[in-house]
Amino acid sequence: MWFTFILLLPQLTLSAHCPSGCFCNDKGDAKCIGDISDIPPLDPKTTFRLLLKDTNIKVLKDRSFQSFSLLLRVMITHSAIDTIQPEAFHGAPQFRSIKLSSNKLLVFPPKVFSEQSNLEQLQLDDNQIVSISSEHFEGLVNLIELDLSKNRISQLDADVFQNLTELIYLNLAGNQLRNLSKTLFHNLRQLESLVLSSNQLVSLESGSFDHLSKLCFLSLHKNQIREIPPRLFWNLQSLLNLSMSGNQLKYIPAESFYYLPNLTMLTLFKNPLISLPDQLMGNMPGLQELYLYNTSLVTVPWNLFANMTNLRFLNLHLNDKLNYLPKDLFCCLPNLNKLSLKHNNLRALEPDLFSNLTSLQILMLNDNKLESLPATIFCNTSRLEILDLSRNHLKYLPGDVFTHTGALNALSLSGNTWKCDCSIMGIAEWIRDNPRLINDLNKGVACYEPYHLQSHSLQTLTHAELKCGEVVSQTMIMTTSILPTQVPATSTPQSSIASSTKARTTETSTASSITSTFATTDSRFSPTSDHIYIKPGNVYNNDLAFYEKIVLDNGPEIVHNNHYDGWVYLWTVPSTGPFSGFMTALYIVLLVTGVVLIVATWYALYRLHEVLWMLQKVTMGDNQRIMARRVRSFKVKL
Q: In the record, which residues are listed under signal peptide (predicted)?
């Protein structure tokens, strides 16, 4: 019993000296919350840290803390303080930290902290302070942290921080600063963190940061900066983190990011950047994160990332005008783990674009306008685990495009415009064999065209369903790209066909050999001239109607056909070239002429109808007058 009493004695003693509404512990902490309008009468011999939160204190009176000879840290936050008397902190030179955050301070007296020569931390953030001067910080020779964020400061004198030579952290974010004096920070040679975000800065003067050789963190985001001077950051060789996002930069001077060897994070997003200079980034072996998104860039220099060999995360997304990436853009990023290219305007990718990204694990390509991908694009990405290709314009994918992605475990393919014909069977079969790798298989990995197969799941497609073998078993297709010397293009179909028939020395006679030729030579579906020769198979006994069932997928436009000596000559119109343009123009002229003739004919008929109606009306009037005369003459005779 006595032992228990001895253990509880310190706590009982503390409770006896702890006022109502406060909590005190044996470590010297006192926390008071609620209906308190003045500094509570705590035991000055046992109180080392005082926290007053959500109180009704409005005024800090002179020498409010003089009796607390051991008090080191005082925090009065989220209260109603709007007045600090000139000697409020006098008599307490031992203070190490004063925090007056989230109050209603508009002004505070000059030299109010003049006796706090030992003060290391001063936080005045989230008040309504409109101006400060060097007198407010007079005597704070050992201050290492100053927080003035979330106030209404619009102007700073050039000498306001001149006495804070030991300052390490300075936060001016969330004010109304429009410009900064060139010499504002020149005395802060020990400064490591400078936060200037969420102000109204329009520009920065050259040399503003020249004396901050120890600066590690610089935040300039969410301002209105339209331009920066050349070499602005050249003396910040200790800089680790630089944030310039959310400004109005359209251009950045060449060599702006030279001499930043220790930089680990760079953010440039949410700037209306139009272009970037070829010489922008210096040697950055330590850079690990780069954020370059939500810009107006159409492309980027091929060497933009060349000096970032240790880059881990690259976010180059949300650039709705970015439509081209240079072939060697990612040449020198062997350690890149995540690459985000989503929500851009990319329509095609170079075959070797990702060939050097041997450590890539996450690749986001969703929400672009990609129509297809080269078969070799993922050849060297053996560690790729997550790949998002959803919401593009993909119609086809090579069947072996994912052959080298052995680590792949999450693939997204939904929201594309898949064209379900024989060309899609390769990727369809791969999907059928690897359904567990596709995390959105039931969300729209389905045919978009043709219409009769719309919404049909790719993984259930079959050769028979697409009738891939029907055309092959019936015909053999040959183009002038295969027989350039045997099938000369002439203006006389008969002679050209005859000469090609004589020149041919061998002929496929079985359906099996035709199928093999058809399946292994995809180029035969892309004729290079304006004619194609088709030889009917034996099974049709040279029936001239066989060609009515021929389907030339992705082939030329057939406009005429002729039969000669067992061959069918198909006249075609090339999809490009002057002849195609001429035919298109002729078609438009004929169409317009036809419309004009129809309108003219309709108008002529309308006018003819009016004339006939008038003639009919005149004739009826004449007849009536003749009848009237006859009646009158008859009456006279009677």
A: 1-15
Give the CA-trace dihedral at 121, 124, 129, 132, to 10 degrees: 0
Q: How many residues does the chain have?
A: 638
Report yes or no: 104 and 127 within 8 Å, Cβ to Cβ: yes
Q: Are 296 and 323 in contact (CB under 8 A)?
A: no
Element counts in the chain: helices (H) and strands (E): 7, 26
Q: What DSSP character marks residue 227?
A: B
User: Which tokens sit at 552?
Assistant: 């030339």
Surface-to-core class of residue 638, CB atoms within 10 Å of its CB (0-12 exposed, 13-18 middle, 19+ buried)? exposed
Give the tokens for residue 66.
Answer: 């003089």
**Each residue of 278-311: pLDDT tens digit?**
999 999 999 999 999 999 999 999 999 999 999 9
Q: For residue 89, which of 72, 107, 106 has the smallest C-alpha distance?
A: 72
What does the block give as tokens for 388?
Answer: 């998002």
Each residue's pLDDT tens digit, 25-80: 999 999 999 889 999 999 999 999 999 999 999 999 999 999 999 999 999 999 99
Q: How far is 132 from 110, CA to CA, in rounded Å?
A: 9
Residues 6+ apart with CB under 8 A from 342: 317, 318, 364, 365, 366, 367, 368, 388
Any idea what DSSP says for residue 198?
A: S
Q: Contact 159/136 with Cβ under 8 angstroms?
A: no
Q: What is the pLDDT of residue 128?
A: 97
* Among candidate residues 583, 563, 562, the one with its CA nearest the CA of residue 573: 583
Mean pLDDT of 246-267: 97
* Residues 299 and 327 sit within 8 Å (Cβ to Cβ): no
